[in-house]
Amino acid sequence: MARDDSPQRPWGTFTVLEEGPQYKIKRIEVKPGHRLSLQMHHHRSEHWIVVAGTAKVTCGDQVTILGSNQSTYVPQCTPHRLENPGVINLVIIEVQNGEYLGEDDIIRFQDDYKRH
Q: Which residues of the chain register pLDDT less than 70?
């Protein structure tokens, strides 16, 4: 369950679990039928581990379905998207690595919620 301090997004929530020099760990929860922007980051890579639910992951030209206890790696400067095609909430742990981990390092190519 998301904590009250979790930033709300149209697709669900995220909670920063820990951060330090050049890394940040988040818990991301995506509502059924929702997806994040098709996006990329110039300054960070990401590792995603599925904790619950089913993830549809777009990474470059590849689309993969991941279940609980499966993971994937998203290199920096690679277009990517996380989707929840299932009927229960998708929960992932995201580990970001890079020189800069700010939320403003998001280049959106496509967004269901008309964010830029």
A: 1-6, 115-116
